[in-house]
Amino acid sequence: MTAEADMRGLARVRWALLFGNFVIGCGVMVVVGAMNDLTASLNVTVARGGQLVAIAAAVMCFSAPLLAGWAGGFDRRRLLAWSLVWYAAGHGLSALMPNYATLWPLRAATVLAAAIFTPQAAAAIGHMAPPAARGRSITFIFLGWSVASIVGIPLASWLGDTLGWRVAFGAVALLGAVAAVWVHAVMPDGVKPPALSRADWKAVLTNPVLMAIVAVTALSGAGQFTLFSYFAPYYKAKLGADGLQIAMLFFWFGIFGVLGNALVSRWIDRSGAGRAVALTIGLMALSMLLWPFGTNLILIGLILVPWGLGCFAGNSAQQARLGMAAPAFATALMALNSSAIYLGQAAGASSGGWLIDHGGYAPLNWLGLGWLLLALALSLWVGRRVRLAAT
Length: 391
Known about the structure:
Strand content: under 5%
Number of strands: 0
Radius of gyration: 20 Å
Order of helices and strands: HHHHHHHHHHHHHHHHH
Oligomer: single chain
Shape: globular
């Protein structure tokens, strides 16, 4: 097979994995988009509805590294395709659940597939891509999460407000089935990133720089999800937004999410992942700082722009940073970084829900800003350590 044919095959895989991440992103965020109808339909508070985000995030956080070790010997074509089948089935069944008590455990089981797919897709494409294109390939497939923000979350919001949250969950199930077929059709057999031994895991977990990079992801995620988890009820309660306006705000946010991720994907191999991470965190912190000035839909739309540019681009840059820092440990690092993403989501959604119950929406952005400033400080420390090690 020629090098040109290899690159065409790699491109097909990249697009399929991008779509798979799009579906994963839609499923993870469907609760956020459909929050208003879900809480009304199931007769639960906004804070309790937000716990669905926290529960799912906690499951993904703790299961991602465990499942990475379990999945080490599996062919990635079958592993990734079957994880999407599980995801589709779980969302389809979730749409049939009669109450919150039956929904949340099924939701927890469903997102096990997300804990497998996203890190293993990143490790697989990093294994398949040539070194010069590794960072670009990893960030490319994470565009799927950005596209989920521009299409999936607004669609979930609109479906939730017009047809109900069950239809939104059903739409994710349908997309998951399509993604499973696509990944199975284009992914070659025999893709098996090197399995890691206990010694390898120990080397990763005891490396202060690598673990600090992972911690940056957790802190950044906590900062975002303190407020992001409650966008829909916030827009309704504080800005008087109706269903269409909420969907359009999600769509507006997503446009800049895609733009930011695309820019980072093109820029990261030339400028360095550390600079990209610092820039994206700084943009999100700016939005948090300006949040209290968003007293109407136009102002809140403007304030969302920096956050949108930084949110998904930051996660992609972090994945690439880890993939380039220690390629031999990519499987473990991608799993740990995914865990950190979900740990941040759980911490942010839980703390945000507690604040809403005890102080309303006003404190959310200040707590989020605090998390983000900690993430930025730690990221800059990592950058200094890496530069010193290189001299």
